[in-house]
Amino acid sequence: MPVAYTVPDASALLHAADVCGAVGLGREIDRGPGRHGLSNALFLYVRDPDQHRIELFTTHYQFIDLETPPIRWDVSDPQRAQLWGMPASERWFFEASEFPAEPVQEPLLKANPETLEEYLGLH
Ligand SMILES: [Fe+2]
Q: What SUPFAM superfamilies does this protein's entry cite (predicted)?
């Protein structure tokens, strides 16, 4: 689970990516930019210098028109997690930083997501 911070809009998210590149952390961006399906939030995931994953995203909160029917997502629909953008890298899916005194647990769900490396034909 990443630590997440909200940013006000898309330009702030891209500015954060530019700052990452300017300070030498461009290769630490391991997912995004993209847009989540469930929340409709734009996102960018980056590793900090200690390799903890940080998510920057535009807010989940939005005004709801009560006359608009809710969207029912299927758990197997990949657009639930990402409407557009390149697939996440293998390290995004399968690597996480450990926290002292917190035991590592196996994931509850076994998934076989398409990774960026597979998408690009690198495997
Ligand atoms: Fe996210």
A: Glyoxalase/Bleomycin resistance protein/Dihydroxybiphenyl dioxygenase (SSF54593)
Output the CA 5–ligand 1 centroid distance in Å.
Answer: 10
Reading the chain (123 residues) residue by residue, the pLDDT tens digits are 678 999 999 999 999 999 999 999 999 998 999 999 888 899 999 999 888 999 999 987 666 788 988 888 888 888 888 999 999 999 999 898 888 898 988 888 888 889 999 999 997
CA of 13 to the centre of ligand 1 (A): 13
Kindly give the distance from the C-alpha atom of residue 71 to the centroid of ligand 1, in angstroms, as a whole number: 18
Architecture of 3-63+78-86 per CATH? Roll (3.10)
- Using the mean position of ligand 1's atoms as its centre, give its distance from the Cα of residue 60 in Å: 10
Q: Classify burial at 31, counting beta carbons within 10 Å of its beta carbon; exposed 0-12, middle 13-18, buried 19 or more.
A: buried
